[in-house]
Amino acid sequence: MRKKKYIEVEPHHDEFGPPRMEPEIITAELKSKPEKKRIKGKKPVLIGLFFITIVVLASAGVYYFVWPRVEMELITAYHESTGAASSGGFINVNTQLKNVGTKTLEDVNVTIVVIETDSGEQAASATESYYNIDRGEKEEMRIEYMGDHYKAYTIELNIEFQSDGNSYTQEFIYNIEEDDAMNLYFNDNIKG
Fold this sequence. Notes:
Layout: E1 2-12, E2 20-30, H1 42-66, E3 71-82, E4 89-99, E5 105-116, E6 122-133, E7 138-147, E8 153-163, E9 166-176, E10 183-191
Antiparallel strand pairs: 1-2, 3-4, 3-10, 4-7, 5-6, 5-8, 8-9
């Protein structure tokens, strides 16, 4: 406890004149101020989480925008439309190529072949070539053919491209069974 001095002034009467004021010193004990309660644990945890978030976001930004890499994302969609009296239908195979890396993809060649699994006959095929696919750009190719949704198909997707002086070749095989849904999606990546 701290002690603080207060001065209290009381009037003092004198026989010869008006009352005068004389100070009298009084000592009083003061209560010390209560200390602020610290919330232990919460504030440091929040600050730590903030800095961890900043580090993660900075790392992701460096990886996405600065770190040199070759990466292509492929999305292939298979869609069947039934025909009249269940005699067959219109079948679409769409493939989207997206450059999600930082390097330009050059001399891109894509071949899609659809094979009827039971007979081994080729139902449809297509080949596309692209000169360059820059970062963030998308290219799409499509095959449409009359098929039978009661048959099983195999889709062979072959991709060749160059980037940063290196050659890349990748083949993907997708099997479509006759009891599968009429809409199927396949998502793949090629990383260099």
